[in-house]
Amino acid sequence: MERGEDNRDGTDDNRSWNCGEEGPSDDPEVVELRARQSRALLTTLLLSFGVPLLLGGDEFGRSQGGNNNAYCQDNELSWVDWSQTDQDLLTFTRRLVAFRRAHPVFRRRRFLVGIEAAELAWFTPAATPMTLENWADPNARALTIYLDGDDQPDLAADGTPLLDDEFLVLVNGWWENLEFRLPDIGAARAWRVELDTYDPAPATAPEDLRAGDTIMLGPQSIVVLRRQPGFRAMKVANPMKP
Fold it and tell me: Greatest CA separation found in the chain?
């Protein structure tokens, strides 16, 4: 594609993928895959620590036709076509934003270091703690992240602790279904699915899941589980914490 500045307006180190077909597609599998990856990437961004930087239009499926740097294009490549809004993606993005706003554990104002990092834990899909060998494995495209919103919370402007619940974030980066086992991190309370990027429709009848149970994740998808309310006094020590 001829871009601008003699094709020097964007990097050649392009990590994008057309999902099997270049440009707009009527293939249901290609369309579904693109939608699924959009949901997973938006979830990755909005549930990460730090300030999420969202390019305007990404929330409803805006495209730049493959151009990765359209700053010098004053044409349909850089214009926002409001008539092409993906309403399903926009609805999912609004749900994500509301979820982030409701849960301060995903809005940490600081990076966790030292003892504070104990409120984080990482597990393999088999529910074993991630080791240095696991982290170094180039084929390790899946993991479970544990977040504790009650341990070392951020403080509001008035000094009030921004307490939150406990969450598991299950990430499947593979292009096939993958089974995850829920880790045993103390407290016998059940977990329930809050978000599933493979099947974005809210669950009508949430299923209780407990340590040792398994859950199947669709390909290239993310599932967020929330610990059901219970007495904090019943919570036992996390074996991943010092």
Answer: 65
| Residue whose pair of structure tokens reads 């009848």 in the numeric block | 205
Query: The pTM is what?
Result: 0.84
Q: Which residues of 201-215 are buried (b: 16+ CB within 10 A; e: fewer)?
A: eeeeeeeebebeeeb
pLDDT per position as a tens digit, 77-111: 888 888 889 999 999 999 999 999 999 989 887 77
In angstroms, the Cα distances linking 140 to 89, 124, 168, 174 are 28, 9, 18, 9
Domain span at 124:
107-234
β 221-227/191-196 pair status: antiparallel
Question: What integer pLDDT is reported at residue 214 of this predicted model?
Answer: 95
Looking at the fold, whether 94 and 111 belong to one and the same domain comes out as no
Q: What is the pLDDT of residues 181-235, one digit of tens each?
A: 999 987 768 999 999 999 988 766 668 899 999 999 999 999 999 998 753 433 4
Do 136 and 60 fall into the same domain?
Answer: no
Beta strands 191-196 and 178-181 are: unpaired
Residue 6 maps to a domain? no
Q: Which of 50, 75, 99 is the last residue before a domain boundary? A: 99
- Whether residues 81 and 137 share a domain: the answer is no
Amino acid at 240: M
